[in-house]
Design goal:
The complex is a heterodimer of chains A (159) and B (653). With 159 residues, chain A is α+β, with helices and mostly antiparallel strands. Chain A contains 4 helices and 7 strands, in the order H-E-H-E-E-E-E-E-E-H-H. Chain A has a 5-stranded mixed β-barrel with strand order 2-4-5-7-6. In chain B, strands 3, 4, 5, 6, 7 and 8 form a 6-stranded antiparallel β-sheet that branches. The chains are: A alpha+beta (159), B alpha+beta (653).
């Protein structure tokens, strides 16, 4: 092969790899992007059918209830304007508490959010950025910030 | 007093580093030998001063000096000594100090061991290294000072303690190894920039860069494996990889670094792929900086996230953009001047290494896109996340051709090769692989296709690697003893990957999980084992109170193991953690977690995680392979001229 042809071969292989990767990425995106909803958005907006969603907000005070004899847990996620009931089966992350920020993932079935994942975190002063955002939108961010006893630097800048 | 010395040493280090960034660069440009030679002593001075500073902070932790804000916020007198020391880097400020300490450590190593480096290259590389250090020292001194004091009247009697999840041996050593890896890639970066300035990349350059890259790669591999292992046993979800932003942050430099290792080999042996190698060196370190930014800024919602301060993130982002934009601009300007020497056909050893590079780079880019997608979406007012399905769908198909090629590539000769003879040597391996595929397909139900792919790849890669090894050594012990360590290293590293792939397949696809409420005396069945909850007891610990469940695992009537998972509540921090109990066997791990009380019983989570120990073993074998390769004669002796002669006489590996 001449040098020029060789280079063309490499370029062709490279383009092929990139093209394949792009195609893979686009199909994968189609199926696996998970949109985040605050309780208000989940209540007021129409939802895309048959999709996994994320729901984030605060665990409503006094809402956590366990079903006797099983590992099913019910609680409500709220942004202090609306709240959405959640059902989850399993062991909750260690830092799951009432009144704290939480992100859950699953599907909304007949008004109840069937979570198959409750995202854990490693640090109790940590507030997931989406949750902070959702609380700012619902106008309740300042109430929360006052109520939360932060130690150390603020988890999210108040702006 | 010691704390103030530490702070002062850090400020001195900054001024020495500024001098190290400027003087040798100017000296090398003007041909002033005295200025050029300043690089070495300055790097050692910088290392000494930062080491003093780090020692001062460690001292404050060891003696529990709570007048230091950082110690008061992250330590406690009741904490075991190991975690007092690891607490130094268990927080933002201290971990950044560790970052610059390691950066200085690598600089100091070049100053000490780089005696036979060309003085110009050494001076420029150390100067670039110092520029990076200046950025991070400024960052520490202005936004994250670990030596800040608390006013005397407000000094607390005791500290707030360390996040209990971090009080664990796996995590005590995870950050240092991760940083040794991240920061280790700064060497390849500095040498790449120096080479761009000098406009010369040759075999000697590659021989210099490769061991540093290899060392960084080894550390990063250990760091990632430790982190994954920790997540596996400490978080109690029975999983080991979530494609979480923080995990991806360490994985992207690993992918790029692995590509860099292989392309530097081509520069060294064949004087080709020079510009690409330099580019990869820049990208790898850029991704390391990006990793630091993602972890330290908390811009992405991560399960591993800690409370963070966005102002600091902006500073690191600035450093990142400056470094990457500056070096890529330099690359665009000077890169085209690098003419490749060795020509090669697409079907050749170089061709297969290039193929590996291409796929690694594309995979790194795909992971990058998936990781940053939430940020991109945010710019368009969407809040979205990309979960594990995305990464699995993109990453796995990219790795399949790569692993297939890994089985063949080492059998091909440099410059030009025929696929025919290489494939003829592999017919037996192909047959064994097909057999393994059939067995897997027959045994596994639901996840048949993916299981067959995973196990098939593992068997193919292991077989191809062993055929190459057998061909090279002719299975003669004398020949084996004389084989270059680099060849041993490759064999082991590739075998390690094969073992790890088998482990990931088993752990990822054949996992069994049960969540249920159990009362003492009850028995549950999982993975062919019967687990009986014998008792639940309260146990005190040094700085926590634990609820411990005692499970007896039986297979038939034989007792296999006693598992005692704990739920701990750390008294100082008031936080609970779950300690999983794991019994490892060659076939897999039995894994039990105990949760909250529920009526008369407890919520428990039981897992059968097949082949998990294979993953850790595979990583370990890869690391041993890397370490063996690092001790190869050509790196130890390192005199480029002699090695070049030897290299010509030796069969290419």
């Amino acid at each position: 092969m001449k040098r020029k042809h060789k280079r063309l071969t490499f370029v062709a292989i490279g383009l092929l790899a990139l093209g394949t990767a792009t195609a893979l990425i686009l199909t994968a995106f189609e199926d696996s992007i998970v949109f985040f909803y605050s309780p208000t958005q989940m209540t007021e907006k129409p939802l895309p059918p048959d999709r996994r969603l994320r729901l984030g907000g605060l665990v409503e005070e006094g809402s956590v209830a366990r079903a006797e004899g099983s590992a099913v847990i019910r609680f409500k996620v709220t942004d202090l304007v609306h709240s959405v009931p959640v059902v989850y089966e399993g062991i909750l992350p260690d830092l799951f508490r009432e009144g704290q920020g939480v992100v859950t993932e699953g599907r909304l079935v007949a008004g109840v959010f069937q979570a198959d994942e409750v995202l854990a975190k490693h640090d109790e002063t940590y507030m997931p950025p989406e949750v902070a955002e959702a609380l700012k939108e619902s106008g309740k961010w300042d109430d929360i910030r006052g109520a939360m006893t932060h130690q150390g630097p603020p988890a999210v800048a108040a702006d | 007093m010691i704390t103030e010395i530490g702070h002062f040493a850090l400020i001195l280090a900054l001024s020495v580093t500024v001098a190290q960034a400027v003087v040798p660069m100017v000296g090398a440009a003007r041909g002033n030998p005295l200025w050029t030679a300043f690089a070495g002593p300055a790097a050692l001075g910088q290392l000494l001063l930062i080491a003093v500073s780090f020692a001062a902070l460690t001292h404050a932790y060891v003696v529990s000096d709570f007048s230091v804000l950082n110690v008061a916020a992250n330590s406690h007198t009741d904490k075991p000594m190991l975690y007092k020391v690891s607490g130094v880097w268990g927080n933002h400020e201290g971990s950044m100090l560790l970052w610059v300490l390691i950066l200085a450590l690598f600089g100091g190593a070049v100053a000490l061991f780089g005696r036979n480096l060309p003085p110009g290259l050494k001076a420029r590389a150390l100067s670039v290294q110092a520029m990076v250090a200046v950025g991070f020292l400024l960052f520490i001194l202005f936004t994250s000072n670990p030596f800040e004091r608390i006013p005397a009247e407000m000094v607390p009697i005791n500290g707030r303690g360390l996040n209990p999840l971090l009080q664990d041996p796996g995590l005590a050593f995870h950050p240092p190894f991760l940083y040794l890896g991240y920061v280790g890639f700064s060497m390849a970066f500095s040498f790449a920039i120096a080479a761009l300035i000098e406009g010369r990349v040759d075999a000697a350059w590659a021989r210099w860069v490769r061991p540093w890259t290899l060392a960084a790669w080894i550390f990063l591999t250990i760091g990632i494996a430790l982190g994954s292992w920790w997540a596996y046993y400490e978080l109690g979800w029975g999983g080991w990889w979530y494609w979480d932003p923080v995990e991806n942050a360490s994985f992207m430099p690993w992918l790029a670094g692995t590509a860099l290792l292989h392309s530097a080999l081509v520069v060294e042996k064949r004087d080709s792929l020079k510009a690409w190698t330099v580019f990869l060196a820049i990208v790898t370190f850029g991704l390391s900086l990006l990793g630091t930014f993602l972890v330290r800024s908390g811009v992405l919602s991560s399960v591993h996230a800690f409370a963070t301060d966005p102002a600091r993130g902006v500073f690191i982002l600035g450093l990142l953009l400056l470094t990457v934009a500056g070096s890529l601009a330099l690359f665009a300007w000077r890169g085209p001047t690098m003419k490749s020497g060795g020509l090669f056909q697409p079907i050749s050893r170089e061709g297969s290494l290039l193929f590996n590079n291409l796929l690694m780079a594309v995979a790194a880019a795909a992971v990058l896109l998936g990781t940053l997608f939430p940020l991109i979406a945010q710019a368009f007012e969407y809040k979205a996340s990309v979960g594990p399905p995305f990464f699995n769908m993109v990453f796995v198909p990219l790795m399949v051709p790569m692993v297939v090629a890994m089985g063949i590539g080492p059998l091909m000769s440099w410059k030009r090769a025929d696929l025919g003879p290489a494939l003829r040597r592999l017919w037996f391996v192909a047959a064994v692989t097909l057999g393994a595929l059939a067995v897997t397909g027959a045994l596994v139900g639901e996840t048949r296709l993916m299981s067959m792919v995973g196990i098939g790849l593992a068997v193919w890669l292991a077989g191809g690697t062993l055929v190459e090894f057998a061909g090279r050594s002719r299975l003669d012990p004398h020949r084996m003893a004389r084989m270059p360590r680099g060849a041993w290293g490759m064999t082991l590293a590739h075998l390690g990957l094969a073992i790890a792939i088998a482990g990931m397949t088993g752990a990822g696809l054949w996992k069994q999980e049960k969540v249920l409420t159990m009362q003492p005396g009850e028995t549950a069945r999982i993975g062919g084992f019967d687990l009986t909850l014998d008792a639940v007891r309260d146990e005190p610990g040094p700085n926590y109170a634990a609820t411990r469940g005692i499970f007896t695992a039986r297979r038939g009537d034989d007792v296999v193991a006693v598992l005692s998972p704990e739920k701990r509540v750390y008294t100082v921090e008031g936080r609970p953690t779950s300690e999983a109990a794991i019994h490892s066997m060659i076939s897999g791990d039995l894994y039990a977690v105990i949760g909250d009380p529920q009526g008369d019983g407890y919520v428990v989570r039981l897992f059968w995680n097949p082949l998990v120990p294979w993953m850790w073993t595979g990583c370990l074998v890869m690391v041993v392979g890397g370490a063996l390769s690092l001790t190869d004669r050509r790196f130890r002796i390192g005199a480029p001229k002699r090695s070049r002669l030897r290299g010509a006489a030796r069969p290419a590996e």
